[in-house]
Each structure stands twice: as structure tokens, then as C-alpha cells.
């Protein structure tokens, strides 16, 4: 545990995602997890990048309302296939449909993060797009992958940090953690601005 942590504001991750929790643990700073409990339904004709940003901000602000003294992180990710949002599949059939759609195509994983503190009126958000080129996948490859990994809680039906990497030809982005769901480089930058000095 960081020896300076106790003198700082509490840090809260406004997400129940196990993937984001594991990423945030890398920063070696104590934090609490609070469910934001927000409606993630897209607005009509809402672009994937706008949806991801709106939800990240909404999650952070919703949790901050109940914890005004804390620095709160909210994040969201939407898979973007030619401006069509692909969310979490939820089940096997939807995951098959998503992977068939993405096979052989470039998909942009729009990953947004927001850091806010109500008491200091600090808020900043950023979108970190990750461009991913999927291989041409056979029906059998899709079926085998889903049976092994069951990525039904992941936007775009693929876990790049696991076997999902075998579905891909190429990943282009500036922060490898963004594809997993929480862009740590930008998160660290915003935490510094919010008063949390991870290396102080």
C-alpha cells in the first residue's frame, strides 16, 4: 500500500467490472468499489463514442453524489463497428452474432473514462479509441472460442487479455490497458489533476 495514501482523498472506482478493478489495482493505491447502477440504454442514433463518454461521466457523477468527498472514476466501453454500437452480448447467441459481424473487419473499441470530485468541483473525461482488426473467423473458431472463454460480459464478445487475442490480426492504440476497459495512462493523468499523486 502506498504510504502516502491515508493523507489523500478516498478513491472510488464507480464500476463493478472485475477487469477494471484488476487494472486499477496495478496503481498500488487503495480504493473502494461502488456500483454506479445507471441505465446504459443508448439514446436513439447515439454514436458509440458519445455513448461511451456519456456513460463514463454518468457513472462517475452518480457515485460522486453519494460520496462527495471522494475522487471517483467512471468508465465505459462500447465496441464500434461502422458507427454501430456493440455492447455486452449477454448470452451465447448474441456473442456468435457479434463475432460473425466483426470477422474480417476493423472495430473501434471506444473506451471512455471520467474522474470527478464533487467537493472540489473537479471533473475531467477523455475518450481513448482502440482500433482492432479481427481475423476472418470460421464458425467453428467462433464456437470454440465462446465455449472456452464465455465473454458474455465483454463489449464485442472478446477478451483481448485472454484467448480473445487469437481472434485478432492487429491492435492500434496509445494505451494497451484501454482495450481491457480502463485506460490507465489517461486515468493516472486525471488522478494527478484531481490531487492524487501516485508517486508522491
Walk me through what this model shows.
The protein has helices at residues 18-25, 48-66, 92-102, 139-149, 184-193; strands at residues 11-13, 32-33, 71-81, 84-86, 106-117, 122-134, 168-172. With 200 residues, the chain is of the alpha/beta class. 30% of the residues lie in helices and 24% in strands. Strands 1, 2, 3, 4, 5, 6 and 7 form a 7-stranded mixed sheet that branches. It starts with 10 loop residues before the first strand and ends in a 7-residue tail after the last helix. Helix 3 packs across helix 4 (139-149). It has one domain: Maf protein (Alpha-Beta Complex). Mean pLDDT is 94; it is low at 1-7. It contains 5 helices and 7 strands; from the N terminus they run E-H-E-H-E-E-H-E-E-H-E-H. It is elongated. The longest helix is centred in the first third of the chain and has 19 residues, at 48-66.
What is the typical, i.e. mean, pLDDT? Answer: 94
How many domain units?
Answer: 1
CATH-defined topology: Maf protein
Compute the separation of the termini in Å. 13 Å
Structural class: alpha/beta
User: Helix proportion of residues, in percent?
Assistant: 25-40%
Q: Outline, from the CA principal axes?
A: elongated
CATH architecture: Alpha-Beta Complex
Strand percentage: 15-25%
Discrete helix count: 5
Quaternary: single chain
Please summarize the sheet with the most strands. Answer: 7 strands, mixed
CATH class: Alpha Beta
Q: Which consecutive residue ranges, at least 5 long each, have pLDDT under 50?
A: 1-7
